[in-house]
């Protein structure tokens, strides 16, 4: 005889009696599995996918959230009658289909077991109950006991049951699978790059956030002699006059040739203080794209294929052409347009609205984002770029504070007292979404077709802030209200951000979005 073996599962509590086990029925006998090794329980299908070189105890595989899980049945090894679903599979050809149908309850369930990064499925007839070992009496095991059994117990309510060895379950050839696939491990180590996704006509494009100077809200196009062909007109942005180009025509796609009187766009900076704007019909979102999730495409797709890194196809099957900004800055045709851009003569600036630049007051370079008090760290953008949104009024947030931006996928109901609107699924995890206007104390948000969700990371979780509209991305710098001594305020609530230059400059309230979360 041997005592309850050394193969007993490790007990994390101080007392083994604290171990919680799940009791399952296999062929009319009861067995237990430590709950710490049970990932989930799912219904068994009526048929399993065959596996190559299949072990006698393997019944096949099932797909669980896109991952193949090998499933084993212990009935043969334990000398028990095969489960109903396996009997039906064996007799399928001899039984008329009208008689062979079985309900899901006859198929049993699959207990997904995991340990040390490995996972396998165990086909059982039913899950009976949860027990603590402290409510049972341990029994000795015979010396010739199958290594699959690592303990025996008696319970007042359910009688005798045997403890299954998790390590032995994971020792069956081809039965265990990596819980996290090599692809998932590789993706976790791959750097993701933030891109703005926008649409022109029927085509979707992606451009890296780091490569754009700013976005351009819809503005009037001024006539210019170069207008015609692939140039739509002239705009003024951040103190610079520049051409607004027809994006489709300049990137080698068919264009309608329409000449609108106003347009929105994205600005790319060029060497020697030059810039170009590319027209945009709609900015859709900000997404993080893996470096190796961009694929090449045949040159015949566009006559300017050298201006692209490739194409990214998202989970919904949408094709997004990824613009190579470095190639655009070296393209001879685009350089000719960029050469026509120029800065307008600056005009004397006066202090606006009783505010003063923190950097100017402290005698620092305005581009030095290390300046200023630590209390303003959550308001300061390391790249001098700010996203302006509307949530019962316009305000700006540092672009680095936002992980991604998405369009509203569902219609919101009324929020609760805390501003909570809905829970969404994001990257296989739950993400609560809050009304940004309500969290700012500015009333209730009104969400229409321009609404979006700012996705933020905090304490290892994702949160969403729903805004009424996403306005623009601009370069800017913090400004604080002047005190009696002429110095800028260091209070976060008394800060603004100055976006743009010269006459086009505007002051917008700023907020640290993480401070708006519960």
UniProtKB/TrEMBL annotation:
A cellular component term from Gene Ontology for this protein is:
cytosol
Q: What domain of life?
A: Bacteria
Q: Which GO terms describe its biological process?
A: chemotaxis; signal transduction
- Record Gene3D superfamilies: CheA-289, Domain 4 (2.40.50.180), SH3 Domains (2.30.30.40)
Per the record, a Pfam family?
A: CheW
Question: Which residue numbers delimit the CheW-like domain?
Answer: 18-175, 192-334
The entry's protein name is CheW-like domain protein
Q: Which organism is it from?
A: Tritonibacter horizontis
């Amino acid at each position: 005889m041997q005592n309850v073996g050394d193969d007993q599962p490790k007990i994390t509590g101080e007392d083994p009696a604290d171990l919680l086990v799940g009791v399952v029925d296999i062929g009319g006998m009861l067995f237990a599995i430590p709950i710490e090794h049970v990932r989930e329980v799912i219904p068994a299908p009526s048929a399993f996918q065959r596996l190559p070189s299949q072990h006698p105890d393997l019944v096949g595989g099932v797909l669980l959230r896109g991952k193949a899980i090998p499933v084993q049945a212990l009935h043969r090894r334990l000398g028990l009658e095969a489960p109903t679903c396996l009997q039906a599979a064996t007799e399928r050809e001899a039984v008329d289909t009208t008689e062979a149908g079985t309900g899901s309850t006859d198929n049993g369930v699959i207990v997904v077991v995991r340990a040390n990064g490995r996972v396998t499925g165990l086909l059982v007839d039913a899950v009976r109950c949860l027990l603590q070992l402290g409510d049972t009496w341990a029994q000795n095991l015979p010396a010739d006991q199958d290594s699959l059994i690592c303990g025996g117990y008696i319970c007042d309510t359910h009688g005798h049951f045997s403890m299954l060895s998790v390590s032995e379950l994971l020792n069956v050839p081809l039965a265990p699978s990596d819980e996290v696939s090599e692809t998932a491990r590789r993706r976790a180590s791959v750097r993701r790059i933030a891109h703005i996704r926008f649409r022109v006509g029927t085509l979707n494009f992606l451009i890296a956030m780091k490569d754009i100077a700013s976005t351009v809200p819809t503005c009037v196009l001024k006539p210019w002699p170069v207008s015609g062909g692939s140039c739509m007109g002239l705009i003024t942005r951040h103190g610079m006059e520049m051409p607004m180009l027809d994006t489709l025509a300049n990137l080698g796609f068919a264009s309608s040739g329409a000449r609108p009187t106003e347009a929105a766009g994205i600005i790319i900076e060029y060497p020697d203080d030059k810039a170009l704007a590319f027209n945009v019909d709609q900015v859709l979102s900000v997404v993080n794209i893996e470096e190796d999730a961009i694929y090449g495409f045949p040159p015949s797709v566009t006559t300017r294929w050298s201006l692209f890194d490739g194409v990214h196809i998202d989970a919904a099957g949408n094709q997004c052409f990824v613009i190579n900004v470095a190639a655009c800055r070296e393209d001879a045709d685009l350089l000719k347009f960029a050469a026509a851009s120029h800065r307008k003569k600056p005009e004397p600036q006066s202090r606006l609205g009783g505010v003063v630049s923190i950097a100017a007051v402290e005698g620092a370079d305005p581009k030095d984002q290390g300046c200023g008090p630590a209390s303003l760290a959550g308001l300061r953008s390391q790249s001098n770029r700010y996203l302006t949104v509307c949530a019962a009024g316009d305000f700006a947030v540092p672009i680095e504070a936002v992980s991604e931006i998405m369009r509203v996928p569902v219609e919101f109901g009324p929020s609760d007292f805390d501003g909570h609107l809905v829970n969404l699924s994001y990257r296989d995890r739950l993400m609560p979404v809050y009304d940004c206007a309500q969290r700012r104390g500015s009333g209730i948000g009104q969400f229409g077709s321009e609404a979006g969700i700012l996705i933020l990371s905090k304490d290892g979780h994702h949160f969403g802030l729903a805004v009424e509209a996403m306005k623009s991305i601009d370069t800017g710098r913090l400004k604080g209200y002047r005190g009696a001594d002429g110095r800028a305020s260091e209070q976060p609530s008394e800060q603004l951000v100055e976006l743009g230059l010269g006459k086009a400059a505007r002051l917008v309230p700023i907020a640290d979005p993480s401070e708006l979360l519960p």
